[in-house]
Amino acid sequence: MGLDKGGIMIIDRYTKFVFTLIAISLFVISLNPWIAPTKAYAEWGSGSERILQTGLSGIAKAVRQIDCSR
After folding, report:
1. Which is more confidently placed, 7 or 16?
2. Residue 42 to residues 3, 39, 45, 48: CA-CA distances in angstroms?
3. Percentages (nearest 5) of helix, strand, coil residues in the chain
4. How many CA atoms lie within 13 A of 34 on its CB side?
5. Contacts of 3 (CB under 8 A, 6+ apart)
6. How confident is the model over 44-57, as pLDDT tens digits?
């Protein structure tokens, strides 16, 4: 291709600049949950208590089956 040392250095600087820009952007995006957290809402309907009881009894059954004798 015939790139001289100056041409390679320009491409190298451009690549480093682009990667740095991507890294900074990803860092800023990762801060979003701490800067502006999204609120979670839950609804309690007529069948919710039964569903909760079923789930909790399943968890209790699984916990009782754990063998802690080791």
Report:
1. 16
2. 61, 10, 10, 11
3. 65, 0, 35
4. 5
5. 11
6. 888 888 899 999 99
